[in-house]
Amino acid sequence: MATPLLMMSNRNKDGDGLGDRIAAMRYYEFKAGKLGSIKSWTEMSQADFTKRLQAVASNFPLVPDDQNEQQRHVSVFVHGFNNTWVESAERYAQIHEELFDERDLGAPILFAWPSNGSAAGYLPDREDARACSKAFALELVGLHDHLRKMQSLAASTQDPAKGCRAKISIIAHSMGNFVTQKALAVAAKQLNSPQLLTLVTQLAMVAADVDNDLFQKDKATESDGSLMANVCYRIGALYTGLDQVLGASAGLKHFGTRRLGRSGLADRSNVWDNVFDHDVTALLDTRKNIHSGVFLSPKAMDLLEEVLRGVDRGQL
């Protein structure tokens, strides 16, 4: 069954679309018409957006514990650098159809953050990505609070059917991983580094434009990587050495650390045990855009589905 196209965005309104400046968070559902026209999206309050999302998730099947991989997801897609709003919406719609609707994976949400949509805007985009983290963190904390409420209800009534029927996952692409990194670190601190309830079941980091030593265990306890590992059940980084976009990214701000999405983890023997990487080079079509190659390859999308479902990393 097709699920609705849902979006939250802190981009400013700009004519018949969304712009590249930071604004207050707004919430939308696509109704009909041209995907790249904001007139085709119905704006709603945060409360109504939450109710809409809860209504969608309430229709997910109740899955027995021994069929954990079949549980549906509420998944947030965080687009990358150099994406206009129209481009991010188009990528989201593709992921919505090919990864979620066709595979009964659940319901994805687009988080559209301000990106300048040009290669010259790389450094401004990075600053916008950092600035967006607090707004995204608030949404993640809200999801956590709802999860805790639903689990408490199921426990108090001894009725598993009253618990949350959805896993929370994130698919982050390119610099969207930097947005996610900073947001999860903020959320972990706001939630006081929760130990009893996982916030994000699966974090899929695609072509991640973040430091490849982010998850080193010998870093400070309050490092971003440590905080992320604490609030996520599993973190998987999909990388390829063919990604020239990330090669250019490293050149713009190289401080001795390579990009995770290009080289993989800096030291696999010294990362948190719920973090892993996977080289997707053999799955990509080298005739297409390598930086977005995971979304353009059926075999890579099969892998991404397995990552989100929680298939054991040894079986991927």
Describe the model.
This protein is of the alpha/beta class and 316 residues long. The protein has a single domain, classed as Rossmann fold, CATH 3.40.50.1820. Helix content is 37%, strand content 22%. It is built from nine helices and nine strands. Strands 3-2-1-5-4-6-7-8-9 form a nine-stranded mixed beta sheet, sandwiched between helices. Helix 3 crosses helix 4 and helix 4 packs across helix 5. The mean pLDDT is 87.
Helix/strand layout:
Elements: E1 6-14, E2 17-30, E3 41-44, H1 46-58, E4 72-78, H2 85-101, E5 106-112, H3 122-157, E6 166-173, H4 176-190, E7 200-206, H5 224-231, E8 232-239, H6 244-252, H7 260-263, E9 275-279, H8 293-296, H9 298-309
Parallel strand pairs: 1-5, 4-5, 4-6, 6-7, 7-8, 8-9
Antiparallel strand pairs: 1-2, 2-3
